[in-house]
Amino acid sequence: MDQSRARRVGAWQALEIRLMIVYGDHKQTRDAQQLREAAYAMGETLDSVPCGIQRHAALVNLFVSVSELVQGLADVEFDIHNMDKNSPRQQQGAKLLVGLAAEVAKSWQSGFAAKGALDRELLRILGGLDCRTEIVVGTAEGYAHYALYPESYLSAALASGLDANTCVIGIRSIGLGLAAVVAAAIEAPAPISVRPIGHPFRRHVSADRQLIEAWKDEPSCCFAVVDEGPGLSGSSMHAVVAWLRDLGVDIARIHLFPSHSAGPGAEASQDIRETWSHCHKHVATTFETTFSENSQIPALRNWVAEAVGSSELHLTEISGGEWRSLHYAHEERWPPSQRGVERRKFLAFADRDRWLVKFAGLGETGQRKARTAAMLYEAGFGPEVVGLCHGFLVERWVDGTTMDQATLPRERLVSELARYLAWRALDLRSCEPGASLLALAEMAVHNTCEILGENRAAKLRDLLSEQVSVQALQRVETDGRLHPWEFLVCGDGTLVKADGVDHCRGHDLIGCQPIEWDIAGARVEHGLSDSEVAMLIDRVDAALKRHIEAGLVGHFEPCYLAFQLGLWRMAARAENGQEKARLAAAAKRYETGLIRFLDKSRP
User: What does the DSSP assignment read for 112-170?
Assistant: First the structure.
């Protein structure tokens, strides 16, 4: 298991999510017909994409998009019947996914040499899929954040020893598409899918037994259960195994396909741990193994070399906080790093040229982040974008001094922050959901109670219960990380935001918020005085030609402090040594800021 994945698993295992509210999952309601039409257009234009990593990436993006559509349609039917059934529409969708997965497999196994148009039969099935409904979709975490690739399940399935006499079961959401990959690899029938429900640590399956009726009494038949994870409890995979066993399937016939080998986390029950220990397991291969330098399949270095136009290219990984060694001469000055949830990133170099290569996501997620990164560069706030290579964003490396090591006049600091935040508010408006004012207040009060006690939590509850005068919340793609070490002061004095693309789409509660959230964050992270905050608000206000709600900034400040306090405290629990001390110090700073805010507020 690669180091970044191990750190993430360790972080989840150490998490006590019942104590602090930090994470969230922002769902959206989408028109299924529009999603189908967009996917169809992607499929029709595949023949115009040059063969190689570009065509392969486009094919995987299509597969990810169709997976999202098909799982959403399955969820609609679950809501109607209060159980999973294998309807003709679901069978059609699963068949389509297996066909697309087979195309991905052919491309991957050929070293991305496959070319030409998509099989017209697959387009026919896609065009005939009944999509006369709205579906609820969310971000597939593995594809969006953790560099989980469908191709990794091809490797695991091919090495599993399973054959066509296998009933493949995908756990929705992401598990349905991954199950189609496994089925395609072993030439099994199209998968069925289930969505375990109930308490996150005690999931159970509600499904029609007819889903497996043709398989369960055949002793030579095996069952493959496919998903990312396991997570904190491992209860989703366990729920499917328990359902199979209740229907008479011997555990020896059940094979698990997880995304890592670390096993269930700290909240796993004894039953779950026993299930994990007794089932056959076929772990998705690591990114480095799936795209190995030692195989005929081009690796990340080859992708980046093609994008930057240099064959003599070298890569070194700087994930897990190692990027700090490139900006700080002494380790004792390093800022804290939430290593367990950092995106994978690499430094690429050829002669004197250097580039940052960072995982941005598969499918529309990565494409959207690449567009945002290009906008940041064109506006003068971000690094130059070279391209998007199968989920990895390639940007020209920026040499500069992090702001926490530079001396910047306060008036210029406020001016630069105002210019940057006004641009985000104007050019990065969003209709995407984020936490409501109520959800933010509940998080803030809860986290405050856990750390500072009921008395201060009660005071904060009273403060946040006061009505905020806001006509309408104009959400934007907020930055969310305005810490001084996130800015680079270049040799010519210009300021560059090193990482301003995707924090509003992380795996946390906040999501897209009004620009007042970032103004509150700027106050906290840069220690702005009341007069400096007023100056910042005035300058953003003037640039936007609309009123910035000072009351909303004040409302957001304790919410921001309480969120950051929970975030850094939980990260500290998963670490040890110097990193733990850095994270604990960061959490303490937010705790002190929250106390100061509450103490200066009127009773």
Answer: S---SPPPHHHHHHHHTS---SEEEE---HHHHTS---HHHHHHHHHTS---SSEEEEE
